Structure formats: C-alpha cells, structure tokens
Amino acid sequence: MIDIGLDILSWILLTLGGACVLIGGIGGLRLPNFYTRIHAASLTDTMATLLIFAGMMLQAGLSLPTLKLLAIMLFLLLTGPTATYALANAALLSGLKPDAETVTDNDKGHAG
Amino acid sequence: MSLLNNKPGLQRGEASLPAVLLLLLVLAISWVLWSGLYKPLVLGLGAFSCVLSAYMGHRMGFFRHRALIDLLPRLPGYWWWLLREIVISSWEVAKLILKPSLPISPTVVALQAEVQGEVGQVILGNSITLSPGTVTLDLDQGQLLVHCLTSESAQALRDGEANRRAARLELG
Questions:
Q1: A112 in contact with chain B, both atoms CB, cutoff 8 A
Q2: Most CB atoms within 10 A, among A55, A60, B31, B80?
Q3: What pLDDT band is residue B14 in, cutting at 50, 70 and 90?
C-alpha cells in the first residue's frame, strides 16, 4: 500500500520534472534573445533537477543509491548556476548589451 | 606542512591543519561511498586522488575561505527558504513561457550585496541565478548586476529578501 503511494508520488514528481524540461525547451525557442533564453534554461537546470532527482530518490528508497542521487543533485545545483554565471558574464564582457530597462538600487547603488 | 607553505603574491592563503584534514576526510568518505570497491589498488588510487584534490584546492585558494565552515550550520535553513523561492518562481516563469502573448519585461537591476564576505556574495549570486526568472550577470566588489525576466521579479529582488537572507547567513 505504501509502496504504491510512493510509486505514484515519484511518478508525479518525474512527470512534473519532465514537464519542466519541456517548458524550458519551449521557452528557449520562444523567448526573443540570449539573456531571456538563459531564464528558460534555468527552469530546466533548477526545477527539473529537483523534481527528477526527488522522483528517482523515491524509487531508490532508503539505500546507498539515494545518498548518491542526493549528492549528485547537490553537485548539479551548485555547479549549474556557476556555469550559467560564466556564460552570462562572458556574454556581458564581450559586449552583448541586454535589451532591457536598467534599474539601479537607489538606496546605495551607483553602478548601472 | 612544507607542501602547503604559503607564498606571498599567490592567492593560496593559510591552510590550517584542521581544515586540510576535514577536506581530506570529506573527500575520502565520498570516494569510498562512490567506488564501493575495497581492493588495495583502488583504495590507493582513491587516496592519491584525495591528496591531489586537496593540493589543487589549496592552489586555487580554497582555504582562504574558511567562512564556508562557519556558515555551514545555517545553510539548511537558507536552503529551505531558497527551495520555496525556486518553486514559486518556477511556476511564474513556466506560466509566462506558456502564455501565447509572452508578457515579458526584461529588466537589469544593479544591486549592492549586504553580505560582506566573498563566500556569502557568491552564495547570494548563485541563489539569484538558481531561482528561475533572475540571472546574475556580474559580481564585482559586492555589486551585483542581475537580469530579470519581468519587472515584477526585478521589484521582488529590489525589495531585498534574498539580500537580507544571505546577510543573515553570515552573521547568524
């Protein structure tokens, strides 16, 4: 009984994770330029990672593979944004201007 | 410790013995968990990898940032809050992408990080990137440049919840 419940929960998580990957892909195609497309990729990077790994951990149960999956998930969540930062920062430094309104933090900020 | 001597001009920093031992211990545990093989050759290779990783970490200035160990106990609470933020903003971004009219309003926000330490600033920058809808473009001297998909997410960022949380992470 509990097994079936866990199975159903993990299927829901895996399906939602797959949906996030799909939506991220659609976003990558629909959004207009480089900087906005990164946002779609980060949906795949973050939410899909969390959901799919949670689903897989439920499938693995209380075992060593679950611990390994958790470690891989943490590793992905730490390195993912670092890679995204490297990509976005490289684009910024090479002179690709974000097609966006710029807002400065008016309390203390002076950069723009 | 002669291997770990600090040379001036390099960004290596002081490597205290407890910090080195802690890193070696963490590396060794992860190696043993991953390999699951207990033959002498494999264990020897594992030990070599651990020492090599620790040495390379030292060369890359890993031990300059002992702040990481200080804020470790407060990390789970921060992660829990971040998880909620990620779920909420993922939902927002997914809705946005699937709307036929694609109502985006890209905004770049310049933000002053409240948190002083380098490690805290990196955590703040990465947290911002991690939540869908906001990406850190640049982090220099505590000044963050953040690209937001909508002006609402830009406004939420300027309200400073993430900034305050990251600052509290360092102060306790």
A1: yes
A2: A55
A3: low
CA B64/CA B62 separation, integer angstroms = 5
pLDDT of B9 > 70? The answer is no
- Stretch (H or E) spanning B167: helix B161-171
Burial B92-123 (b: 16+ CB within 10 A, else e): bbbebbeeeeeebebbbbbbbbbbebebbbbb
* Domain residue ranges in chain B: 2-64, 70-171
CB atoms B97 and A102 under 8 Å = no
Cα angle value A105/A24/A72 (rounded, 5°): 90
Q: Which of B126, B127, B150, B153 to mutate to test the interface with A (most CBs of A within 10 A)?
A: B126
Q: Is the ipTM of this complex over 0.85?
A: no
Q: From the list A36, A45, A111, which residue is nearest B110 (CB)?
A: A111
pTM: 0.80
Distance CA B90, CA A69 (A): 22
Q: Which two tokens stand for residue B29?
A: 């545990």
Whole-number pLDDT of residue B10: 45
pLDDT digits (tens, 9 = 90+) for B41-69: 988 999 999 999 989 988 887 777 666 67
- Between B5 and A52, the more confident residue is A52
Q: CA B131 → CA A30, A94, B55, B83, distances in Å?
A: 20, 25, 33, 9
Q: Are B150 and B96 in contact (CB under 8 A)?
A: yes
